[in-house]
Amino acid sequence: MNIPSKKAKNKVIFSVLIDGFLIALIVLCFYLQTPINSSRVVYIPKGGTSEIITYLQKNDFDLLNIDKQIIRFFGYPQSGWLDIGYTYLSKGDFLYALANAKAALEEITLIPGETLYFFIKNISQQLNLNEKALHLAYTNYSPMSEGVILANTYKVPKGISETHLMYYLVNTSLNEHKKWAIKFLGEYDERQWFRYIIIASIIQKESANEEEMPLVSAVIRNRLEKKMRLQMDGTLNYGQYSHTKVTPEMIRNDTTHYNTYRYDGIPKAPVGSVSFKAIQAAIFPANVDYLYFVRNKNGVHSFTKNYDEHLKNFSK
User: What is the DSSP-derived secondary structure letter of residue 271?
Assistant: First the structure.
């Protein structure tokens, strides 16, 4: 009986290992060629490769745990919105793109006081998106019909979908809302907080500058405490009427909750976007007893607590 030498045994083991490696390599090559569907723009959360793959699996991407190892070979994905470039590609190309793709960013701006109606109209043209789909996506993600997206400049990738864009804008803003609520009030109570946002949106519309904001806030507070109607034109610059001059006819005919000449209290929703300064003024009004204000010849407002004096300022 011939007993294989140690050298022969090692040769057999090495041959088996080579064969196994080649088989594994062939299987891996086939696996990397399997097709995968993807949106052109993909959101990648912060975290390690395991968290990233798990997030994508939960969002209907056909990935396996082995992909956590494969993607490390290609590199490391940056977080945020990535432009993959294609919607139908191989698994290998998809993983490589995740690790190496860069976001093609474009700036969109929501100016303080602007309404969602005009913001969506502007960004739909700028980003070539569908207005109706943007409104629907906003409604799906937002707790309020207006005023949730904060006035700011946002960097978003070109090619982003309506759903992804509104998810990003609403959730980014809601995180800021919660942060500011906890900072100013010690807690985030959605109903309480958005009452302040409604007031802030009126302040944003009515104030000539940031310095006036605490004074306008004080007028709102004082009138509410005295059960006086706000009677402020800015509340009628809602939605599509954001840039419309408020006329006596509009005041008489508008029957919505935004008409503070017709109804007591504040509107049921914000009248537009708000800035940090407007929110701060809504929470911390000036310690004054003003009840009236009117724009003067200098383009700012004259404030008074007396109606007769207000009429004199108005006549000027």
Answer: S
